[in-house]
């Protein structure tokens, strides 16, 4: 019996050793489950081949992405060595010690932030904003753009009808007025024997959907969150006349021109609505556009792309993320090795080729870049004027307040735009006061 | 007083039974404690301690996502803010609407179904099985399943309503006025069978000779129902209401799947609101105060109700 116990212990110890050995030289990268994640997985094979470090991936659907990984960070979990977290998480990651500060590492390895698009560095890497404290390497540039049915826009009878109704050529909208007109024109229209609708918008209530949608209008109306000279003073800025106009425009677009029941829709719902031929246009992140361009039903010449239409200014909603090293990781050195590898221009080029979105100047400033994809020009245009939601450590609290009040006004038709904005400011004031920022 | 060697004293000593031999090991009382102690420890660890901890948190500004933060006492600050916030009252109103109407429909339809099934017609067993199927599903699955039924373009439910009303843009869960009823409908579909089963047990426990005696006395079916059936089944019915009332007050998963609390916040029940405050906004102390309020509410209502139920049972 004693011999048997000894043998069992030895076996167990042996297994333990092998398990420990197996964990060496392995990294887990955490991100959302979407098209670019597949491209990154493909790209990661090059890293493994070069360094021998195995890559594991933890990809979570967008609807539970923030819940899952913010819990992981808050509980100081060791699951993720590398985290591609939302741009809004930077304040939280930096102030609560979830992310490793990368300044010394960048300096030591000769990684210069000047090699990346300034907007990408500002939004995906720094905290406090505009400082030279780097908590991430810009990894996935992204913004909200629009896709339209190029084939429908080209139909002579459609063009004629549009000309007759609006007195101008049917073309991708450049202003919010044009967007509204175009969406209204397609709403309920019969094309190829089927009823079509105007546009698939972001209206989702649970995570961040309607906020990402509404801010397309707010930014186009040049709305600021707060007084640039007096941070956190929001009265007269976030609830300005322009903000009210923007919000009313978004509500009008939702009410007149979305498919029936499009009241809780985000990225995937918009893709579904567009790909199934329900809508003439869809709002979505550029990250999905390679998938659309390759899609059998709507790819090739069927779809065209345009940037967020302007109202008072040209601006786009920021998407995308930076890649950070999680401070609770036991494999920080290997994780930094990945960052070093990923920052190289040739890797960045391959990243773009595979369907990821590099913001490395070597890729973006290449003369062939604009023609490399049907949406590359629009991507560059959008990235040059992106704006982001609060990146405060309390961003989740700020986001949930906005989600509630925007959904109440736009989808549930409660109150006025002014009331929705005022109520949001009231909640935000409470949040900033409770953390001592006001 | 007798001297120790008095003959009476000696006789009494001889008559008294010898003291029981001292047993080795644990006494019965100690043995009982040994068996009960683990259960009590477990109860303290997983029920009482978290409850007390939650109550303590409710008086602080604690946020679970801020390691090392300076936790300050807030006095009754969290409670004051909660009770003065419209959002909280709205979520409680939404909960009250959901609990009241879903209970009403479940009791009425559940009792009616039990009444029919109790007639033991041909195939009643099969019908019983079919009727109880929904309650065997997971609430999250039911929520997801019904979002498809409610889907305006391909959903069967909306197609049926559209057929009768002629509406092509009808959507139960996207409409501010209809969405609260959409969740009541799904909960009623899922849990009416539970009420039916309990009522059926009650109906089958009524002695048949009571009805025979009533018939001999010439009582009409309505009179029999009011004076025999209803009083006999009432304790069962009240038990079903208690179970379903507590469960519906705790409702979360099915509604999250169906509407995420929307449109806007018209279906944001108290527990969804609580989850958002606690695990999305990370206002832990504040959410703990709301949890205490909800706990006291349910506990209070349940206690009053159980007293009423005992009174009915004893009649």
Automatic annotation (TrEMBL), chain A:
The protein's matches in Gene3D superfamilies, at most eight in alphabetical order, are given as:
Periplasmic binding protein-like II
Q: Where is the signal peptide?
A: 1-19
Does the record's keyword annotation contain Cell cycle? Answer: no
Tell me which Pfam families the record gives: SBP_bac_1
GO cellular component annotations, sorted alphabetically? periplasmic space
The protein's UniProt keywords, in alphabetical order, are:
Periplasm, Signal, Sugar transport, Transport
Which InterPro entries does the annotation name?
Answer: Bact_solute-bd_prot1 (IPR050490), SBP (IPR006059)
Q: Where in the cell is it found?
A: Periplasm
In terms of superkingdom, the source organism counts as: Bacteria
User: Which PANTHER family does this UniProt record tie to the protein?
Assistant: ABC TRANSPORTER PERIPLASMIC-BINDING PROTEIN YCJN-RELATED, ARABINOSE-BINDING PROTEIN-RELATED
Q: Which family does it belong to?
A: Belongs to the bacterial solute-binding protein 1 family.
Q: What is this protein called?
A: Multiple sugar transport system substrate-binding protein
Query: Can you name the source organism?
Result: Amorphus orientalis
What lineage is this protein's organism placed in? Bacteria, Pseudomonadati, Pseudomonadota, Alphaproteobacteria, Hyphomicrobiales
Automatic annotation (TrEMBL), chain B:
InterPro entries documented for this protein:
MalF_N, MetI-like, MetI-like_sf, Sugar_ABC_transporter
**Topological category with respect to the lipid bilayer:** Multi-pass membrane protein
Keyword Ribosomal protein attributed? no
| Family, per entry | Belongs to the binding-protein-dependent transport system permease family.
Kindly report the protein's main subcellular placement as a broad class. Answer: membrane
Q: Does the keyword ATP-binding apply?
A: no
Location of the protein in the cell: Cell membrane
Record domain ABC transmembrane type-1: where: 92-305
- Composition-biased stretches (Basic and acidic residues): 1-11
Q: What is this protein called?
A: Multiple sugar transport system permease protein
Q: Which residues cross the membrane?
A: 30-53, 98-117, 129-149, 155-174, 181-203, 223-243, 286-306
Q: Name one GO cellular component term.
A: plasma membrane
> What biological processes does GO assign it?
transmembrane transport
Q: Where is this region: Disordered?
A: 1-24
What's in the keyword line of the UniProt record? Membrane, Sugar transport, Transmembrane, Transmembrane helix, Transport
Kindly give the CDD domains that the UniProt entry links to this protein: TM_PBP2
């Amino acid at each position: 019996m004693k011999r048997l116990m000894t043998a069992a212990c030895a076996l167990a110890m042996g297994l333990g050793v092998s398990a420990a050995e197996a964990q060496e030289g392995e990294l887990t990268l955490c991100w959302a489950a979407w098209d670019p994640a597949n491209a990154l997985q493909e790209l990661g094979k090059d890293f493994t081949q070069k360094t021998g470090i195995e890559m594991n991936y933890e990809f979570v659907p967008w609807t539970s992405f923030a819940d899952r990984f913010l819990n992981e960070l808050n509980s100081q979990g060791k699951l993720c060595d590398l985290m591609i977290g939302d741009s809004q998480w930077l304040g939280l990651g930096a102030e609560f010690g979830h992310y490793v500060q990368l300044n010394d590492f960048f300096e030591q390895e000769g990684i210069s932030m000047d090699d990346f698009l300034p907007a990408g560095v500002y939004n995906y890497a720094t905290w406090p904003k505009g400082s030279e404290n780097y908590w991430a390497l810009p990894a996935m540039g992204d913004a909200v753009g629009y896709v339209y049915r190029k084939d429908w826009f080209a139909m002579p009878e459609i063009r004629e009808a549009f000309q007759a109704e609006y007195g101008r050529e049917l073309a991708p909208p450049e202003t919010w007025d044009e967007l509204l007109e175009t969406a209204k024109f397609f709403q309920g229209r019969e094309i190829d024997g089927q009823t079509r609708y105007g546009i698939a918008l972001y209206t989702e209530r649970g995570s961040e959907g309607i906020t990402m949608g509404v801010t397309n209008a707010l930014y186009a109306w040049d709305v600021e969150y707060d007084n640039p000279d007096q941070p956190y003073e929001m009265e007269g800025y976030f609830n300005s006349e322009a903000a009210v106009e923007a919000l009313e425009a978004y509500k009008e677009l939702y009410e007149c021109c979305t498919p029936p029941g499009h009241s809780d829709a985000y990225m995937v719902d918009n893709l579904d609505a567009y790909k199934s031929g329900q809508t003439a246009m869809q709002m979505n992140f550029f990250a999905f556009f390679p998938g659309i361009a390759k899609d059998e039903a709507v790819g090739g010449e069927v779809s065209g792309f345009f940037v967020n239409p302007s109202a008072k200014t040209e601006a786009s909603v920021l998407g995308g993320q930076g890649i950070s090293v999680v401070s609770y990781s036991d494999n920080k050195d290997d994780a930094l090795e990945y960052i070093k590898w990923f920052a190289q221009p040739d890797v960045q080029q391959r990243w773009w080729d595979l369907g990821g979105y590099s913001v490395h100047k070597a890729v973006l400033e290449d003369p062939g870049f604009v023609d490399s994809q049907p949406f590359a020009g629009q991507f560059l245009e959008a990235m040059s004027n992106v704006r982001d939601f609060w990146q405060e450590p309390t961003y989740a609290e700020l986001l949930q307040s906005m989600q509630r009040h925007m959904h109440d006004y736009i989808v549930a038709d409660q109150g006025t735009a002014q009331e929705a904005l005022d109520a949001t400011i009231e909640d935000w004031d409470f949040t900033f006061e409770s953390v001592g920022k006001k | 007083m007798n001297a120790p060697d008095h003959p009476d004293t000696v006789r009494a000593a001889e008559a008294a039974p010898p003291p029981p031999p001292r047993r080795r090991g644990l006494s019965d009382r100690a043995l009982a404690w040994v068996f009960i102690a683990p259960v009590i420890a477990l109860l303290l660890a997983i029920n009482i301690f978290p409850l007390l901890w939650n109550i303590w948190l409710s008086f602080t500004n604690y946020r679970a996502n801020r390691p090392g933060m300076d936790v300050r006492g807030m006095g009754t600050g969290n409670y004051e803010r909660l009770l003065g916030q419209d959002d909280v009252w709205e979520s409680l109103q939404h909960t009250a609407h959901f609990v009241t109407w879903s209970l009403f429909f479940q009791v009425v339809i559940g009792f009616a179904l039990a009444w029919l099934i109790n007639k033991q017609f041909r195939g009643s067993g099969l019908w019983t099985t079919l009727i109880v199927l929904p309650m065997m599903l997971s609430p999250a699955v039911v929520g997801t399943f019904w979002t498809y039924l409610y889907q305006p373009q391909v959903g069967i439910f909306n197609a049926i309503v559209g057929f009768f009303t002629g509406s092509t843009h009808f959507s139960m869960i996207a409409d501010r006025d209809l969405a609260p009823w959409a969740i009541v409908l799904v909960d009623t579909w899922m849990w009416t069978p539970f009420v039916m089963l309990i009522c059926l047990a009650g109906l089958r426990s009524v002695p048949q000779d009571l009805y025979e005696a009533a018939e001999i006395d010439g009582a009409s079916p309505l009179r029999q129902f009011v004076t025999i059936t209803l009083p006999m089944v009432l304790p069962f019915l009240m038990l079903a209401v208690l179970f379903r009332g507590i469960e519906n007050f705790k409702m979360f998963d099915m509604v999250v799947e169906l509407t995420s609390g929307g449109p806007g916040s018209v279906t944001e029940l108290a527990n969804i609101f609580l989850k958002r405050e606690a695990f999305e906004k990370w206002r832990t102390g504040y959410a703990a105060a709301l949890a205490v309020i909800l706990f006291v509410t349910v506990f209070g209502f349940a206690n009053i109700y159980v007293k009423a139920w005992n009174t009915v049972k004893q009649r």
